[in-house]
Amino acid sequence: MRVLYVTTRQWNPGDEFILAGSRRIVASAWGQPSVEAIYNKSPQVKSLFDRFNPLRNRSIGKLSGVFDSFVKLTEFDNSHSWFHDLEFYDAVVFAGSPAWFGGRVADLYKQLKDFPGKILCLGIGTPNKRIEFSTAELSALKSAQISVRNPELVDSLQKFGISSSYRPCPALFAAANQRQVESLESLAMVYTSDRGQRYQAVSTEHYRKQNSVFQQILDSRVADNTYIVCNYIDELERAQADFPGVEIRYSFDALSYENILHDADLVVSSRVHGCGLASSMGIPNLHLGHDSRSSTVNGFLSERANASAPVDWIQENRFSLNRLSSRLREHRELAFNSYLDWLGHGATVDASPELDTAVC
């Protein structure tokens, strides 16, 4: 089978956690694909306004090279683009994230109009914008098999005649390995900032609440080792300035985050998918919510932290982490098998099958 995943690369590790979980679902339900390519909707690659560019047209042929250095007609990130043939693939899989319709995927939806293969949406989420579809989007989504990660999205889609069902976000299956937490010795705090790239930043109000929570945790010395995890490069210098002397962990490679969290016994995260990866690994976690998409963490069995008393929750539950960790591991297996049943693969299987790690 040849599969095209709709995702981002080198943009948001959370999207790549969803991709990893989606690949695990596909490999277990359909078998390991012989081809795995991506449609990269990273803002660096796909502009909201590409569809209005008159120079992006097959008919201009070699002339595109003349303009390319100035107006970015082509894309060289090793991903599916507007000039590639979609019919090469047997299936198109939207690997979660709220950006599953609109400008960055407009070219793809045009190609999906006559696509004869499978269209699968795994864990798409409620966007922070009004839901309205083009004719091409509506046609493709009505023919797709769709799971959503926010229950309220089921009703929203039904208003357009689009069928869907709720299941936890595929990031729940991202990690290759799980561990059993026994006690609280190490704690990871997943950081966000109100500065830097606007799609990565949070509000100043949330940023201040987050830092207050993190400082309470540090002052309480509730864990022997406490460290900060950054997901985006703009956050590094700010995190160091906010928490001098605290260890900061970061990687450009989303696959490295499993190793970054490997020794954490508890994760406190402002990022939804910091919680998702933690739950996937069997690590109990608290989420500091900052927008409507935070309901996604319910599917991870994350604790929704009260910003005024996170340390109280940690103190009350520090001796229950073993039970919480076991519950997460059981939840992952049940949720994974729910996906396989939904896709018509009824057999119970290992929720952590080996995957090829390269995505072309």
TrEMBL record:
InterPro entries reported in the protein's UniProt record: Polysacch_pyruvyl_Trfase
Domain Polysaccharide pyruvyl transferase: 12-292
Transferase recorded as keyword: yes
Keywords: Transferase
GO MF term (any one): transferase activity
Pfam families: PS_pyruv_trans
Domain of life: Bacteria
Protein name stated in the entry: Polysaccharide pyruvyl transferase
Organism of provenance: Allorhodopirellula solitaria
